[in-house]
From TrEMBL:
<dbReference type="InterPro" id="IPR023393">
    <property type="entry name" value="START-like_dom_sf"/>
</dbReference>
<feature type="domain" description="Activator of Hsp90 ATPase homologue 1/2-like C-terminal">
    <location>
        <begin position="18"/>
        <end position="138"/>
    </location>
</feature>
<protein>
    <submittedName>
        <fullName>Uncharacterized conserved protein YndB, AHSA1/START domain</fullName>
    </submittedName>
</protein>
<comment type="similarity">
    <text>Belongs to the AHA1 family.</text>
</comment>
<dbReference type="Pfam" id="PF08327">
    <property type="entry name" value="AHSA1"/>
</dbReference>
<dbReference type="InterPro" id="IPR013538">
    <property type="entry name" value="ASHA1/2-like_C"/>
</dbReference>
Amino acid sequence: MNIDNTSYAEAAMLIRKPISEVFEAFINPEITTKFWFTKASEKLQEGKSIDWVWEMYGNHTVTVKVLSIKANEAIVIQWGDDEKAIAEWEFNDLGDSKTFVTITYNGIQGKQDEMCAQIRDVTEGFTLVLAGLKAYLEHNIQLNLVADRFPVELTED
């Protein structure tokens, strides 16, 4: 991926599970729904457009286009309709059932203050996703980090 060093967000985490298990957690919605979104139209497959739904946010839906999948190495998606909004997962096998996952989001645009807010929000969001993944895969605990970031009680008028 060609990253513009001024307009991307990144989060990374060590997950103490084999790379195949960590990779599967991101392509298989039966697992991903335990730590991120609540529904998906199907499993990630290269060339397909998939709907991800966050029911806790009023059924907020994002359509992602899967640009490439390299088993146990990388996933690249286009996030929504913006062709520049690209998210990439990189999986590194550290041996001894340890996987280092890096998520990079490129395509942040706008004025400087808008870009700073997007970088902050995307970095926070993917950090919560990785922390939720870690808790789920390593300890079989669903922390509900994504849902609890914006509790409905704080958003109701």
